[in-house]
Amino acid sequence: MEEDDDSDSLGERFQHIYRVTNVGVHTVGGVIVRVTWPLKDVNGNVITYLIRKPYIRYAGPTGDYLDSCDIDQDIVDPLDLFSRAKRSPEAERSDRQRLNE
Predict the structure, then answer these.
(1) Of 36, 49, 54, 60, which residue is least crowded by CB atoms under 10 Å?
(2) Measured between alpha carbons, how far is residue 63 from residues 17, 21, 31, 57, 59 in Å?
């Protein structure tokens, strides 16, 4: 999908990869990895904008798996910048102001 030009104002893109490895001789079940990202600074300015729902990729005894993470969907692309056609600059400014409130 092609991104809106206005999405550049969100800042530099980055990707985090966290690797949990079991080097033991037995399988491990019920592993929970909890990651928290700061979404806004102390002044309420957006500092992390999730453009899609995070996922987890892991290997199990019967193959490789891909699952979505348990996350509040309201914090994923709250301005719909990456899931709909380009909007007017006025609408984008209004949404950004709402996001920073």
Answers:
(1) 36
(2) 20, 16, 17, 11, 6
Tokens in use for 80?
Answer: 């719909």
Structure tokens of 2? 């092609």
Q: How many CA atoms lie within 13 A of 61 on its CB side?
A: 5
Please report, for the chain, how many H helices and E strands are present, in that order.
1, 2
3 Cβ contact partners less than 8 Å away, ≥ 6 residues apart: 81, 82
pLDDT at 1: 37
pLDDT of residue 95: 58
Among residues 81, 101, 77, which one has the least CA distance to residue 92?
A: 81
CA distance 24 to 88: 55
For tokens 């996001």, the residue is: 99
> What is the pTM (predicted TM-score) of this model?
0.60
**Residues linked to residue 50 through DSSP beta bridges, in sequence order:** 76
